Amino acid sequence: xxxxxxxxxxxxxxxxxxxxxxxxxxxxxxxxxxxxxxxxxxxxxxxxxxxxxxxxxxxxxxxxxxxxxxxxxxxxxxxxxxxxxxxxxxxxxxxxxxxxxxxxxxxxxxxxxxxxxxxxxxxxxxxxxxxxxxxxxxxxxxxxxxxxxxxxxxxxxxxxxxxxxxxxxxxxxxxxxxxxxxxxxxxxxxxxxxxxxxxxxxxxxxxxxxxxxxxxxxxxxxxxxxxxxxxxxxxxxxxxxxxxxxxxxxxxxxxxxxxxxxxxxxxxxxxxxxxxxxxxxxxxxxxxxxxxxxxxxxxxxxxxxxxxxxxxxxxxxxxxxxxxxxxxxxxxxxxxxxxxxxxxxxxxxxxxxxxxxxxxxxx
Length: 363
What we know:
single chain, alpha/beta, Double Stranded RNA Binding Domain, TIM Barrel, 6-stranded parallel beta sheet, 42% helix, globular
């Protein structure tokens, strides 16, 4: 697919839109009009008072066109230009493919976040109208957004205005997963950096505690993530958690999570250490219970390791365990993912977080 960008720079947004219809197509970009099959020409033509946004899609020997106009005085001119170009291209693809995506032109990973902001700014009725008429989201998905936001609001309303959450990064893993876009390093390659990293981390935790006290903030939740925090030793985990206890008033703390992401890093010594130092929730993240898929993504543990780690955590007294899964990993299938979900359900965790493999901005 050749994507022509004429007089605009909305490359990222339009590329992601095309991926909805042509997920495996290689996309080439041009700043001039290119003719031929499998070509999309998107253009912004700014006149004296009005801007015309248009798309011309040529595919399988047929042409599809769509366009719209925007007043140059529009208060949200740049964002509306982007949206209307996306709508024009979306209309062309819908006509050509006879397919209407349930999420309309939305391509982000958190549509409920946008819906929540619109509700705050304009009210729920206006938010629903915008999703349906401007973004072309269907009613079922709008209802899902509304239910998600309502669920989130029941949680966020419990937080006080002077509260805050603390995230602590331990950016080391046994190996680097094939899909990972986080700042993380394998212990194998960067293990020598861990002692110094933890030393500086403890200093930063202490300084953050000083700042929180100075401005009167109350610590509400702690999340030690990564990376894989349990990739470091029990002693090193203890140093980090002790630094938190020494640096903050924990009287208002509602939850203390340690991400025990890789099952092959979970040991009784580490679980006992974090439990003793105040951890109330852990996350054991197999991502899949298919051993072949685990191998595809560069993980060295097995599904059986996940079961072992989970049962060990229960023996150590953890009664709040989350499990992360990813749908769409290389080599996975709908049937395989269903087996993964059923396998995890049999473990009976307190929560399951399901992600879908996706290309994120700047990753």
